[in-house]
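Hello K.,

You asked for the raw outputs rather than the summary table, so here they are, unedited. I folded two proteins back to back in the same session to keep the settings identical. This is the first:
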Amino acid sequence: MDVDAPPKAQQASQGEPTRANNTLKRSAKVWFIVAVIGQLMFAVYVAGFYWLSALQGNFAKWEKATPKGFVEGDVMGNTAMIMHMLLALIIIVGGPLQFVPHIQRKYRKFHRWNGRVYMITVFLVSGTGLYMVWAKGGIGGPFQYAASTLNTILIFWFGILTWRTAVQRKLKVHKRWAFRLFLAGSGVWFARLGFMSWVMTHVTLGYDYNTYWPHFYNIWSFGQFVVPLLAFELYWRTLEKSSKTRKYAFTGLLYFLTLLTAIGIISVTIAMWIPRLTG
């Protein structure tokens, strides 16, 4: 008999937080896997629609997806549009790779260089996107202008702190800032998921999605990056500081958010990306 072994009740109390943590982490991994699948679908769309038409010299095709995006004679605006759309593929593909544990451990040099390329690219893409919103005009009015500006500010802020904490070798904090950057940089992807989920849900239930569309558009212009960032903040704080009950509760919430993410991916793929690729 091992006299140093803790009583069974104590062992159970010590093991329960670990199980709660593992369960919560597992739900986060499930969400990430679903999100990566969705981002890969987005990458196929960007490559098949924007890159392919650009290689063919058919920039006019972009008008189907982005009104006023490519305007004859608008050198600055067209340059910004081309940079924004073509560089976006690097963000969509490179971002998720930064959070794959196997790559982080086995391919550290690639991880570092991919991170640098990602950061520079997300700065360029968000900067050109903000320029287009203000110079060309958005379809959402003041709310979209304000949301796009705030999102861009957050991207630059998160990017700088991601770089700084990496240089300082504060790896735990670095990972958090890097994931915040990833979420903020994926705002356009989240936007499409939210907008098409709204449309598909209303159509499925037989309601007119246009009734409250302007209000939802204004709200989701901010929600596309605020909601994911808020969910992440709640996740890691719950993981480190909350009771096991709250951890299990947030696990359920995260699975629900995963379901919503999956619905959004399916909706935007069926209703937007496939028709544009095949049309």
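The second followed immediately with the same parameters:
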Amino acid sequence: MTQLKVRLTGDDAASVSGAKISELRQISNALRRTGDWLEVVDGIEDVTVLFDPLKMSPDKVCASLMRVDVNSENEEEIDEIITLPVVFGGKDGPDLSDVCKTLGMVTDQLIDALCRADLYVDMMGFTPGFAYIGGVPENLSVPRLAEPRKRVPAGSLGLANGKCGTYALDGPGGWPIIGRVQVDLFDARKDQPFLLEAGRKIRLVREGQE
């Protein structure tokens, strides 16, 4: 693992950076296992922890983060590629045609490029279960919608600003929607209800096109 960089970002927060996205995922898992932190938040380039300053001094926090014990027993699970079947276009991808016009592509070109790409989850947010997915080819960058939608159906796949985004739950959103994932991204019956997590590798597969 590369040399980690640790810094305090507030009176009750600190961050760890300087590692690859897959390594950051292992770090965040290891930090959660310790039970020392009020919250562990995955980011694109770092992992942030919130702590109780009455129980942990800044020096102790930094020392704990520098010697985080990354257990490799889950590396195989982390490296597993999650396949997401997607129906592109039509009612499931109402913005696909406009996105292709903006990019100067036909739909097959765009879909094939996304399905060939080695994608991965950068981070989670802005709503519960929403996954920011990196690895999108640089030539597939389009802007967000001028007017966000008040409701985007769960499972929708968006494309904006050089990333894909998946909506695990119904909600508002401003990403152009190009398709819909055909597996549940949220299942309340499971201990881990959201299918996607930061650091996960993703493969899109064309399920169909309307």
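The mean pLDDT is 90.

Happy to rerun anything if the numbers look odd on your end.

Regards,
P.
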